Amino acid sequence: MKKSSLLLLVLLLPALLFAQAAAESSMLNSDYYMATDANNRTLKLEKKPSHLLIAGKAGNMPANALFLFEEVQSMDLTLPKTDQGLGDFFAFIRPDLDQKPRISQTAGAEEIASRNSDLVLMKATHFESTAKKLDQLGIPNYTMNLESYEDWKAELSELGKLLKNTSRAQQLIQLYETRVKFITDRVASLKPQDKKTVLLLQAERSDAAYAYKIAPDSWMQTWMVETAGAIPVWKGSNKAANGWSTVSFEQIAAWNPDLVILLSYKDASDIYLKAVQTSELWSLLDAFKQGNVKASPHDMMNYIQPVASWILGLQWLAKEAYPALFADVDMEYEVQRFYQEFYNIHDRAKLDVLLDLYRTSVASNTL
Prior knowledge:
- The protein has 367 residues and is α/β, with parallel strands linked by helices.
- It has helices spanning 3-29, 60-66, 89-93, 109-113, 127-136, 149-162, 166-187, 220-227, 249-255, 270-277, 286-289, 310-321, 331-342, 348-362; strands at 33-36, 42-45, 51-55, 76-78, 119-123, 141-144, 197-206, 209-214, 231-232, 245-247, 259-263, 293-295.
- It folds into two domains: 24-159, Nitrogenase molybdenum iron protein domain (Rossmann fold); 197-366, Nitrogenase molybdenum iron protein domain (Rossmann fold), CATH 3.40.50.1980.
- The protein has 14 helices and twelve strands.
- Strands 7, 8, 9, 10, 11 and 12 form a six-stranded mixed beta sheet that branches. Strands 4-3-5-6 form a four-stranded parallel beta sheet, with helices on both faces.
- Residues 41-325 form the Fe/B12 periplasmic-binding domain.
- This is ABC transporter substrate-binding protein.
């Protein structure tokens, strides 16, 4: 950078910071609650939302973001079914939610409108099918994408504006950034020839048959492997339009990865690991011989997906790929710290439940 450009930046920086602070102060002192959603619509509410409905499939993702803010504790909430099969995390935090019927994930705009909520929160993928119709009905609604690290940072910032709690939003973003930087700083020292090859497989079963799928290149699961300093061997192989793509065992064997991670978003991951451990076919893989086929970690939600606990999945992946490099990382401590700092859970009994679920999810990895 030229000296003149650097000097100009130094001179302008205080003015830019002042303008940003002034804009935030103006927003916080205004009579409105306003933010821009994932579909680039600016929502302007006259009062802070207190009766909120989360609609549609993948409702656990916007719910995850909302529950990071303390305002959720006093909100009248209506949720869709958010249990992925591992437990209901939101009712775990707020047991009173069990007393309120859930709305169907496939509920239409008219049914959603009939609930008379202050605000409807949903995934951006429901924009065409639901959000537009709610706009026509005059129902305030807000969409979130939350599919990438950049989405999480940008959309937490906007959600903080909508709730007029920008300080909490910035705190959350900093918590994520600090944890990610800890990992990227460590793996930056890896030479190309020292990087591990990793294969993430979503496992499914039907009767006695098992199927394995790979994620698209653009999805967070792929980004997590790369950010952990490893090489996702499947990258470039998913030809599906937008979703997981089934792969054969022959292809898995051809990739011959250093580390295989088995994922499941509906069952406990160790179910699939136990099946692999008794498989003559899988026993031929180098990763199997070296004990490097692993069940992915979870408590009430799998960590290796774009929910708030993705940062735990990233930390776990980095430690599994490079145990010596991350020998000082205690995952049980990180799980507890995550729920204390991100969800403000300090009740010992609740933390123990989450820790026990995590321990159980990865127990088979040491057998």
